[in-house]
Amino acid sequence: MKKIAIFASGTGSNFQALIDAVKAGSLNVEVKLLVCDKPGAAVIEKAERASVPTFVFHPKQYASKIEFETIIMNKLQELEVDYVILAGYMRLIGATLLSAFQNRIINIHPSLLPAFPGKDAIGQAFRARVKEVGVTIHYVDAGMDTGPIIAQRAIQLSDNDSMEDVENKIHAIEHIFYPETLESLFNK
Ligand code: GAR
After folding, report:
1. How far, in Å, are 8, 55, 57, 132 from residue 84 at the CA level?
2. pLDDT of 103-112, one tens digit each?
3. Domain residue limits at 154
4. Which residue has the higher pLDDT, 83 or 188?
5. Mutation probe of ligand 1 site: the residue of 85, 89, 106, 109 with most atoms within 8 A of C-beta
6. How many domains does the chain fold into?
């Protein structure tokens, strides 16, 4: 069974969806660690409730990305983590982790990449008045939401969808699509 670490910065609804899928037996992985770069983020409480160990850090307390990524890398190696799963981790992964986990870092992004990379992808798509939005799961490289695509799922919008409707539709897809995609990638 693959061992994963989940990286997240915020609410953690995708973290929770992965945990729920593990509990339900539809995602066969061992969640070894939550890594969170935002002390106080809601995802931390979700991890504690699920008895997942956490490593919470404040990037500003380190001299460089190399310094905090080296600490994270050592923890991941100690725990024999196979894959790093980003679930709303709002920070670029640096060379230290990229080279230690080549082709083993995966991200979910709430758009049909290459459209709308970066922050507030849902807001960007809503303001552009596109008729189709979606979710992308991809390998992580040094760019912002640029690595090779593993899977995408599209959703059609209707003219009267509010920003909140669009958010809800995208999150609902994410919560099903991420565990499903990881399960088929790891346990085909
Ligand atoms: C998710 O929609 C995820 O796709 C997005 O952040 C949100 C986190 O929500 N990620 C990115 O935008 C990455 N560029 P959550 O904390 O409730 O899982």
Report:
1. 11, 14, 17, 29
2. 999 999 999 9
3. 2-186
4. 83
5. 109
6. 1
How far is it, in rounded angstroms, from Cα 147 to Cα 143?
7
ipTM over 0.90: yes
Chain segment 19-54, per-residue pLDDT in tens: 999 999 999 999 999 999 999 999 999 999 999 999
Q: Which of 109, 138, 171, 175 is catalytic?
A: 109
Active site residue 109: yes
Query: Residues near ligand 1 with C-beta < 6 Å?
Result: 8, 10-14, 87-88, 108-110, 121, 145, 174
Confidence bin at 136 (pLDDT 50/70/90): very high
C-alpha distances in Å from residue 30, one per residue of 6, 27, 155? 11, 9, 30
Residue 98 belongs to a domain with what CATH number?
Answer: 3.40.50.170
